[in-house]
Every structure is written in C-alpha cells, then in structure tokens.
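Input sequence (171 aa), recorded before submission:
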Amino acid sequence: MGFEEHRRAAPARLRVAVITISDSRYQAWLEGRDEDLSGRIMEEKLRREGHEVVRDLVPDEPSLILGAVKRRLEDPAVDVVLTCGGTGITRRDVTVETVRPLLEKELPGFGERLRAIGYEMVGTPALLTRSIFGVSRGKLICCLPGAPSSVEAGMKLLLPELGHLVKHARE
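Predicted structure, token format:
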C-alpha cells in the first residue's frame, strides 16, 4: 500500500486527550482563572480539524502526570494523548521522564524537527526544548513544551499526519 493509500485509510475523526502539566496553570485553575493558553491552542487546532477533545490539567507531580496519562491510555475512546508543559530543565520539569517508560516505541525524529523549527524561530534558546513522541497500547503519546510557540510548532507537525500515525499505531 502506497503513502496516499495509507492516508486515505486513516481515520479522519479522532478523540484526543490534551493534558496540560503546570504548577502555575493548575494553581490559577484552582483559583478560578483559566490561564491555560497552550491547552486552548491545542484544543482549538484539533477541533478545527474535526477531532473531539477532552482536557485535563495537572501540576508538575510525577504521580499525577502518570495517573492522568494512564487514565487516558486506558480509555478505549481515546486515540491520542497530547501533553504540554513540564518539559524544561528545572527540577520540577518531569514530564519526559515520567512518560518515557510508558512508550513501547519512541519516534525521536519529532523532537529533532521541533527543535529545528524552534531554532529557526528563536535561535539557541530552542536547545532547551525537550519533547517525546511515541506509541503506547496502540495509541500515540506526544509531550510538547508548554510555551504557546512550541505548541503551535508541534501542532503544525502533528496535525497533517495525525490520522495516518494513529492508523499505524493501531496495527
């Protein structure tokens, strides 16, 4: 089967879980303020493409991150788990380390390309960009940085191939 045939056989509508991981955004949410711009960007772009979205917000705590991701992986209606935040280099940034053990297959090219795009946009600060992308339990998991510009770049990479990638993850 050729590339175009694969694309045509891919699901057009997906259910995507968006999980924002941030101490500050979680605290704001507890106080009744929605400061989750990156989560809203992800949701808006996914909905524009016809996908269904469910959202979660958790602080930078490994057990809470792991619980939220596992809960979405165990949900038979969810096809993709996208996270944003907690991918920096501070002690509290533990998303990549928490999610990596769940992956059965890792796709490192995504992070490489994301950093290259970031470098074109902001220069050497892009070297601080960490992300992870792979497959677990027949579902895609992608962890993006929390910066809105990183989310924009990541979604630009993911959206055109999301259905095609899900098709392969299920095989």
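Checked by second reader. The beta strands are 15-21, 52-58, 80-84, 105-106, 132-136, 139-144.
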